């Protein structure tokens, strides 16, 4: 009998612990809601917060990495500080974050918790002969990002070139980087939200001619998916509490949280399609949740003031743990022989018209003499090219395809899981 009483007490403690964890998770989600931004060109949505609650992966070392965070958190912070200092002071030996996988930031190969980011110079649109062609170039970059499941695009101004207003621009105050950021944000926004979140602007004159990304979060009306992107409307729920959200269905849905009209949110639609006439009160969740559940949820856009800030600053609390530079002067390695470390947030950087070497020279805050020291690895992904030049939009497609297999191997992911 005494043993049964002890068991009941232990069970009660575990139940209480689970309740506390659920309350903590709910508070974390609620805290994230005010920070969900509108799609504002030039700012992007890169400031997503990460869920605090760790989940065990079905493979890789993600579960073990979470347990090591407390031990190695101080060491990781020192590494990030050394990296930022090296960019400015020219400490070439420490200019790059050390290889990932040795600290608590190892990625889990399941649940889609890792991210792949790419950085591109805003000045690439300067060579376009017209705004229509510049818009088409932005569309090509957005399509490449969607095809290869890029989670973040960083547009950086490369020195004086990046601060220049294109000759074809109808807005004399908008730089090349701001133009590209605006177009990329527009294309990522679901079609049913563009009228609300993307106000009319001269730079969007040819946006209607761009091909759709057709990514999962740009769902059609008849589709049911676990999550939907939405915008809070001015309507009030019949119950008087919560908010009405346009998620691209025939009618607005009601969420529990009270939010400002015009706010872009991610809504958890529930475990199954609602029955006819069924009224549901739904939940707004952090934008990162669909990705953490294994869904590709489009990309966010961040506008950086320079090449150095594109690398040293980040939308993620612990920054990028591995950075790849691409150049015709880079190291030549077969994709099958390229070994990348485990990573959680990886960044692939593309230069402007004259390449990363020129981008470095235009960034006065970078003191290192060799651009290679800014990256963990500096790659030539297309050796023996027939043309004297490879355009940035072409280099992006070539590089992302080249890196597919090395990235999968680094994450310990089987080919079949990547293709799901």
Automatic annotation (TrEMBL):
Q: InterPro entries recorded for this chain?
A: Alpha/beta_knot_MTases, NA-bd_OB-fold, Put_MeTrfase-C9orf114-like, tRNA_m1G_MTases_N
Q: Where is this region: Disordered?
A: 1-111
Gly residues composition bias: which ranges? 59-68
Xref: Pfam families: Methyltrn_RNA_3 (PF02598)
The Acidic residues compositionally biased stretches are 89-105
CDD domains tied to this protein: HsC9orf114-like
Domain of life, per lineage: Eukaryota
| Compositional bias ranges of the Basic residues kind | 8-17
Q: Which family does it belong to?
A: Belongs to the class IV-like SAM-binding methyltransferase superfamily.
Specify the protein name: Uncharacterized protein
């Amino acid at each position: 009998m005494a043993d049964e009483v002890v068991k009941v007490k232990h069970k009660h403690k575990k139940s209480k612990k689970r309740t506390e964890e659920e309350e903590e998770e709910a508070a974390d989600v609620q805290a994230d809601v005010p920070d969900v931004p509108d799609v504002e060109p030039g700012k992007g949505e890169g400031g997503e917060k990460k869920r605090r609650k760790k989940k065990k992966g079905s493979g890789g070392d993600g579960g073990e990495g979470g347990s090591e965070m407390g031990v190695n958190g101080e060491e990781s912070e020192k590494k990030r500080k050394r990296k930022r200092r090296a960019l400015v002071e020219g400490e070439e030996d420490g200019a790059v974050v050390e290889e990932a996988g040795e600290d608590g930031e190892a990625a889990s190969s399941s649940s889609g918790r890792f991210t792949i980011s790419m950085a591109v110079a805003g000045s690439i649109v300067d060579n376009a002969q017209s705004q229509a062609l510049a818009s088409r170039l932005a569309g090509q970059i957005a399509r490449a990002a969607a095809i290869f499941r890029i989670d973040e695009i960083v547009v950086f101004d490369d020195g004086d070139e990046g601060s220049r207003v294109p000759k074809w621009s109808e807005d004399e105050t908008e730089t090349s980087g701001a133009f590209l950021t605006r177009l990329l944000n527009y294309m990522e926004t679901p079609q049913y939200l563009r009228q609300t979140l993307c106000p009319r602007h001269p730079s969007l004159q040819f946006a209607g001619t761009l091909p759709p990304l057709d990514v999962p979060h740009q769902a059609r009306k008849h589709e049911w998916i676990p999550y939907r992107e939405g915008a809070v409307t001015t309507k009030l729920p019949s119950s008087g509490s919560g908010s009405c959200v346009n998620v691209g269905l025939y009618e607005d849905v009601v969420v529990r949280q009270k939010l400002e009209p015009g706010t872009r949110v991610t809504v958890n639609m529930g475990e199954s399609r609602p029955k006819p006439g069924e009224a549901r009160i739904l939940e707004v969740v952090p934008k990162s949740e669909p990705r953490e559940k294994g869904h590709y949820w489009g990309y966010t856009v961040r506008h950086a003031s320079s090449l150095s800030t594109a690398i040293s600053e980040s939308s993620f609390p612990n920054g990028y743990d591995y950075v790849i530079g691409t150049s015709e002067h880079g190291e030549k390695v077969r994709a099958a022989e390229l070994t990348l470390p485990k990573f959680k947030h990886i960044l692939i950087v593309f230069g402007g018209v004259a390449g990363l070497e020129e981008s470095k020279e235009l960034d006065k805050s970078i003191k290192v003499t060799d651009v290679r020291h800014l990256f963990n690895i500096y790659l030539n992904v297309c050796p023996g090219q027939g043309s004297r030049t490879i355009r940035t939009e072409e280099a992006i497609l070539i590089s992302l395809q080249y890196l597919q297999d090395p990235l999968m191997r680094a994450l310990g992911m089987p080919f079949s899981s990547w293709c799901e």
